[in-house]
Amino acid sequence: MWLSRPFNERSTRLFLLILVLAVTLVTILHLALPPENPLYVSGYTVGLLGKYLCYALLAVAVDLVWGYLGILSLGHGAFFALGGYAMGMYLMRQIGDRGTYGDPVLPDFMVFLNWESLPWYWHGFDMAWFAFLMVLLAPGALALVFGYLAFRSRVTGVYLSIITQAMTFALMLAFFRNEMGFGGNNGLTDFYDILGFDLRSGATRLGLFIASGVALALGYVLCRAIVASKLGRVCVASRDAEARTRFLGYRVERVQLFVFVVSAMLAGVAGALYVPQVGIINPSEFEPLFSIEIVVWVALGGRATLYGAVIGAILVNYAKTVFTGVMPDAWLFALGGLFVVSTVLLPKGIAGVLAYRRKQRNESDTTEVPA
Amino acid sequence: MRIPCTLMGQTRCHAAMTRIVNLWLLCLLLIALPFAAMAQDDADDGQALLEALDVRSFQDKAEAIEAIIQSEDERANDWLQALLDGDLQRHKDDGRFVIITDNVGREWPARDALTGEDVGEISRRELSRIDINNALRSQLRSALSMVELYTGERDERLDAAEGLIGDVDDELADSLESRLDDEADADVRNRLNQALAVYRLEQGEMDAVETLSGSLNSDVRIALSRAAEGEGAVADAARAALVDIEQKLKVNRGLETLYFGLSMGSVLVLAAIGLAITFGVMGVINMAHGELIMLGAYSTWMMQQLLPGHPGLAVLLSIPVGFLVSALVGVIIERSVIQHLKGRPLETLLATFGVSLILQQLVRTVVSPLNRTVTTPEWMSGSVAINDALSLTLNRLYIMAFAVLVFVGLILIMRRTRLGLEVRAVTQNRAMARSMGIRATRVDILTFALGSGVAGLAGVALAQLTNVGPNLGQSYIIDSFMVVVFGGVGNLWGTLVAGLSLGVINQILEPWAGAVLAKILVLVFIILFIQKRPRGLFPQKGRAAEG
Question: Is the domain of B271 the same as that of B395?
Fold first, then answer.
């Protein structure tokens, strides 16, 4: 079975092992230890780590298209945000009549804007299954239409990057408008519960953290499976020599479209898990800067390795948390420097450094044996 | 002033009847001023005249104003203007009348209303204003307009005549007619005729419609639409005239949209043309291009800080300074980052984006995170009125001209100079160019400096339109790339056409879609357009296109 193939690889087994251990460890430290213990993991930290895991899944999605397909998408922030909005709409409808204005159907911001009834695209989001389906379908549909148009006309390389960025920018402007019916500037927030669990309780937070870990593991395995399949090899071929692959008879644009849509859906899932953990979704997730930041996580971690993307996402976001707390002004310097350093000095990222080290060790091993 | 006599009460009516004479006297007096040296012993008379204004009833005030007009006092004009502007105030303690010259803050500089002497600053709490109502305002305005008509320069007379349109009543009409005979300037006569025609239209005269048809003045339009509401021949004529005017207005609105579109387009062209060199010709993706624009804008601001009081000189000097600053920073970026990433466009994109973040934060830390404003020099502010409905703002006109100059300059450099030849050679076939003895690295540096410097020029121009802030560049980078890609990479003419047409499209969409939606629609349009024609409006042909 193609889905079982990734488990034959040592790196996948190692990655999954570390991930499972880390999530279990955090859960145990959070539940079993008293708050006074220095090793105790607070509810805040659990939420933060859950956020990192969502970012890691997002980075894996970007690495799938950038690392293996050679498409530098600056629009994954938009897919992430769309997934987030789908989840946000569900959470909004769950508020029911507990909002400030107490309207049983309309969210607060619609009452505030004097809207008479729910816009058509808000219908169905009171049902969890529909909303969760939309988490996949909304980003997927956008990626399908956009990718179909772009790949069919063979828009690739820098051009594709620029128009994906323009798409993100246009969506940001659109979601900032109150008339769009997504809460405008403020976005969607003040959620109460998800699937009946109180979002403010520690247990729900922990549950979401574990869910993020599971989603990351599944997403990783899925991407690994795609990459290891024959399709994955066509991906890499089209990345390295698109014209040649096409001449060999492969329909490159179909492969690109398929992988692009899968990647967008993964980004949507990451967004959907992110929103209940941070408690808000607003148009700033559509900012071009965010989309390009994701790419830098992947670049720093190392392209075309998948685990590198996870390392990069967690490292950069940890650094961001620390930096913005200690010296907020320095963060943009650090981030900007990271862009330059990771591209100029570390073209293969941290994963590349690790691989180099391992190779060196192996070589010294082999040279020692005959001696 | 169109309030019928019966509504005004007996006293006002009486006052109004004497006004024709009064206005006449005032006008004659003001004409005679240079010849007749007025006796200055009437300081007490003046005090009495002004004191009559300081009463509660507006009817009494109206009479006091009449009295002032009638008084033949040479300071009357000054008083009436100050009264109209709300600057005529009375000191609460000593009862002196003063005219405020600047009402900002708590201490107001003022001069004595009677002697004209500067009395220094007075606390606003010690002053009480002589209040007026709308009827008085109208009375004052007509009186002042009449004075202007007799004594003002041509432009002042023109403004005064325009101000009278729609404000003419019985007694004013007579004095206007006699004024019309003396007026030599055709434009002023035209306006006066219109003012009188509006009055005659209200009286139901047919030939007035003929005079008014084709006028774009808004007061004329109001008068015509009022006349069109009725029945009969005059109303029919007025309706026909209105249709005619609407037609003319539509044309003017179209022209205005075109003007705004072209000016917005020329801003886009300025922002994108530097990118057309670095991205289009050299193939280097410089995401820090927006920040180079921002640096140019900051250079303008900096020059104004260095040369306080000379905004015009500062703007002129900031053109070379902005160019050099951005060109220098551009070279630093090229040497430190871009040259190491040759042939890896996606990595170049990321690295230069990082540079843009650093530059933004640098400006935030060194200058300020807040926006700065650049003062527009006097010769750049104001507007040129083409007709009543259409006036073009000067600063946008200058920016259009500047954009054209920069564009022509760049075309000349690329087509006619040695550098342009070498740039084209290097971009078409680097190895071949080098074997012909062209120093490719030097060409890279110079080209990048040129593109970056032009970004700086765009910043200098933008500083005249918007606030200068750390995020200035960010808002233009996506637009700039869109323009270059839309126009066709590597084609300067394409950039020009794309920039201008996107500006115009945006302006056409804006009225019915709103600014934000218009922008979204334009972006979507370009995204779809690129799918259809990936190489832009004017794709490069031949061997160069394959690189």
Answer: yes
Same domain as B441, residue B324 = yes
* Burial environment of residue A52 by CB neighbours within 10 A (0 to 12, 13 to 18, 19 or more): buried
Asked if pLDDT for residue B290 goes beyond 90, the answer is yes
The three-class DSSP label of residue A371 is coil
B346, B352, B471, B523: best mutation site toward chain A, by most A Cβ within 10 Å? Answer: B346
Q: Which token pair is A141?
A: 């549909």
Residue B541 reports pLDDT greater than 80:
no
Least confident of A107-111, A345-349, B154-158: B154-158
Q: Which residues of B touch A161 (CB under 8 A)?
A: 346, 349
- Number of Cβ within 10 Å of residue B113's Cβ equals 23
Count of Cβ atoms closer than 10 Å to residue B14 Cβ: 14
Distance CA B486, CA B500 (A): 11
Q: Is residue B34 part of a domain?
A: yes
Q: What is the pTM of this model?
A: 0.78
B531 interfaces chain A, CB cutoff of 8 Å: yes
Query: Quick one: pLDDT at residue B296?
Result: 94
Lowest mean pLDDT segment, chosen from A296-310, B197-211, B331-345, B471-485: B197-211
Domain range for A360: 5-368
Q: How many distinct structural domains can be found in chain A?
A: 1
- CA B417 to chain A, closest CA, distance in angstroms equals 30
Q: Is B23 on the interface with A (CB under 8 A)?
A: no
Same domain, B345 and B415: yes
Residue B471 with chain A: CB contacts under 8 Å: none
How many Å is the Cα radius of gyration of chain A? 22
* Pair B15, B66: CB distance under 8 Å: yes
Q: Which of A60-64, B224-228, B274-278 has the lowest mean pLDDT?
A: B224-228
In terms of DSSP bridges, do strands B107-112 and B118-123 run parallel, antiparallel, or are they unpaired? antiparallel
Residue B504, in any domain of the structure: no
Read off the pLDDT of residues B22-53 as tens digits, 9 standing for 90 and up.
555 555 555 544 444 444 445 567 777 787 87
Decide the pairing of beta strands B127-129 and B383-387: unpaired
Average pLDDT, chain B: 81
Distance CA A37, CA A337 (A): 37
pLDDT over 60 (residue A105): yes
Residues B168, B279 within the same domain: no
More confident residue, A129 or B216: A129
Residue B193 placed within a domain: yes
Give me the count of residues in chain B: 547
Closest Cα partner for B69 from B165, B171, B177, B153? B171
Cβ neighbours around A172 below 10 Å, total: 21
The yes-or-no verdict on residue B54 having pLDDT over 60 is yes
Among A155, A332, A344, beta carbon nearest to B360: A332
Average pLDDT value for residue range B321-334: 95
Side chain identity at B284, as an amino acid letter? V
User: Would you say A270 and A139 are in contact if contact means Cβ atoms under 8 Å apart?
Assistant: no
Domain end marker among B68, B99, B129: B129
Identify the domain containing residue B138 by its residue range: 1-86+130-203
- pLDDT per residue over B504-521, tens digit each? 999 899 888 888 888 888
CB contact under 8 A, A336 and B519: no
Inter-residue contact A345 to A330 (CB < 8 Å): no
Q: Higher-confidence residue: A50 or B342? A: A50
**DSSP structure string for B446-478:** HHHHHHHHHHHHHHHHHHTTS-B-TTTTHHHHH
Is B95 inside a domain boundary? yes
Out of B101, B129, B157, a domain closes at B129
Cα(A348)–Cα(B237) distance, integer angstroms: 81
Q: Count structural domains, chain B.
A: 3
Q: Would the CB atoms of B354 and A176 count as touching at under 8 Å? A: no
Residues of chain A neighbouring B516 (CB-CB closer than 8 A): 173-174, 176-177
